[in-house]
Amino acid sequence: MGRTKWIYIIVANLLLISLGLEFFFSTRDFSALQMEKSKKIGACYTDMDNSYFDVLNNEISSVIEENGDRLITRDSMLSQEKQNNQIHELIQEGIAALIIAPVDWKKIKPALEEAKESGVPVLIVDSPVYDKELVACTVTSDNYNVGMQIANYFKSQRRQAKIILIESENSKAGMDRVQGFKDGLAADMNYHIVAEQKCNGTLEDSIKVMNSLIEERTYFDCVFAVNDPCASGAITLCEMYGMNQQVDFLSTDGSPEGKKLIQNNRMMATAAQFPTEMGNRAVESLYKILNGETCEKKILVPVKLITKYTIDSYDLEKWQ
């Protein structure tokens, strides 16, 4: 090998060593630079004690982190006042976009208006809001179809019934489920709704509601609950009174707890939601919005009915 070629090799190696030392001893913080380029996304959920929102948030968070961005999550703990304050604080932190599962579909309006005035696009998940023009996209389960599916299945199993409805107080998703159920039964006079009670969607509140109805000596042989926690509360109380054998229970969620109630013959049916798919659809729409692309204004994620006939095809330990 000639002397000239050796000189080129030595110079090239020295150059590489120099670049490596410069990178090693550089005062520039490359991780900080990466963080500066990343976007902060805010998320406020109705109630993180409900495992549904935990699964939904985990899916959204994992995709956002894969994109090099950061999700800041807040639990509104069933308080719309708290949620509005959390949204204000997130906007002050400089978030690029906001994901909200609203507590109250109407009282969230001031927070939505603040987001719009601040130029922060809003994506709604789980339950719609009243002021749709203030949000860029809404991703929910097909809640009206939830009620219709459950009503149609119930009619195939029972020829008549006296039914208690445990409804959601402020959630449009819950209202849609109940309306679908009512419409599914409306044409048949053999099914009578004897009481409609509103609650905040928790097991504890459902127990209080059911206890007052039982103490009032309301006669019923079916309970349709707006979600699995409410159904679990109704079942628990009816079992305490020894009434569970003569009452059928219907619900929505397809949570691990709900599926176990069906497997153990404590509940007739629940309509399965898919929080993982909802999270995927939501974050896909989120990045379309951030990239200035067009996305669907309303996305409905299909639901599936779970009964004793289909329960064996589901994982009892997980959401779908």
CATH topology of the largest domain: Rossmann fold
**Rg for CA atoms:** 26 Å
Give the averaged pLDDT, no decimals: 92
CATH architecture of the largest domain: 3-Layer(aba) Sandwich
Which range best describes the helical content: under 10%, 10-25%, 25-40%, 40-55%, 55-70% or over 70%?
40-55%
Approximate shape: elongated
Lateral arrangement of strands in the main beta sheet: 2-1-3-4-5-11
Query: Sheet bearing the most strands, described?
Result: 6 strands, parallel
Structural class: alpha/beta
Number of strands: 12
H and E string:
HHEHEHEHEEHEHEHEHEHEHEE
Task: Describe this structure as you would to a colleague.
The structure is a single chain. The protein is α/β, with parallel strands linked by helices and 320 residues long. The protein has 2 domains: 33-141 and 275-301, Response regulator (Rossmann fold), CATH 3.40.50.2300; 143-272 and 307-313, Response regulator (Rossmann fold), CATH 3.40.50. Helices cover 46% and strands 20% of the residues. It contains 11 helices and 12 strands. The protein is elongated, with a radius of gyration of 26 Å.
